[in-house]
Amino acid sequence: MNNIQLESVLNELLSPHQIKDYCPNGLQVEGKSEVKKIITGVTACQALIDRAIAEQADALIVHHGFFWKGEPAEIRGMKYRRIKALIENGVNLYAYHLPLDVHPTLGNNAQLAELLDIEVLGGLEEGNPNSVAIYGQLAQPLSGEELAARLSITLHREPLHIGDNAPQEIKTVGWCTGGGQDFIELAANKGLDAFISGEISERTVHISRELGIHYFSAGHHATERYGIKSLGNYLAEKHNFDVKFIDIDNPV
């Protein structure tokens, strides 16, 4: 498939035009015109780029790409080395941030719900059909310790659990993969028993304790492996691409 056609396929699937984001979504760095082999991964770091080159990939599709709002515009240093490696080796770089978080089946939030056996009930941001944070109900109620254990086993990373003043039994859960910790107040105001995100801020601990809601910080990288992986699987199944997911370890 042509690299521009692949971008059209991805845009039609993920609808980035409907979502206000902090970075450009789509083809960020153009490479060779014909795409057959694709590497997927969470972040377009040098290690993943080097692996894509070693695998002789025509394209690299990631959740965290380049050109974030507020970052320096100059292409120098680390950014230069990354982009230079992509261009010299003809590797197309595609990145989809919030559109991949919110996709109802392939997205990070949807995939986390499937992994944790949570039924999705809706979005936490009222009036926003593309709510970045969502909520749902566990198939079976769990204690805070049991949900922490499930997260640890499922994501291969021990979560930080704040459970002071929270319900003994967790039935309803809100969540937002990655850096979604500030949606915890929406979850508490909705009367949910727990909230899960990837990152934690200092203030999040106090909010959890004072509003009486369980909070689980399960890792930004750990909670966002699965959307990009499912997107790659979709491209392999529906469009016959040779796709390989490569996980560059990140403890955060």
UniProtKB/TrEMBL annotation:
Task: Alphabetically list the UniProt keywords.
Answer: Metal-binding
Q: Is Thylakoid given among the entry's keywords?
A: no
Residues involved in a divalent metal cation 2 binding: 64
Gene3D superfamilies reported in the protein's UniProt record: NIF3 (NGG1p interacting factor 3)-like
- Enumerate the transmembrane spans: none
Could you list the residue ranges forming a coiled coil in this record?
none
- Please provide an example of a Pfam family that matches this protein in its UniProt record: DUF34_NIF3
InterPro entries per record: DUF34/NIF3, DUF34/NIF3_sf
Show the SUPFAM superfamilies listed in the entry.
NIF3 (NGG1p interacting factor 3)-like
Recorded GO molecular functions are: metal ion binding
GO cellular component terms listed in the entry, alphabetical order: cytoplasm
- Which parts of the sequence bind a divalent metal cation 1? 63, 101, 220, 224
Q: Which family does it belong to?
A: Belongs to the GTP cyclohydrolase I type 2/NIF3 family.
* Name by which UniProt lists this protein: GTP cyclohydrolase 1 type 2 homolog
Q: Which organism is it from?
A: Photobacterium lutimaris
Q: What is the lineage of its organism?
A: Bacteria, Pseudomonadati, Pseudomonadota, Gammaproteobacteria, Vibrionales
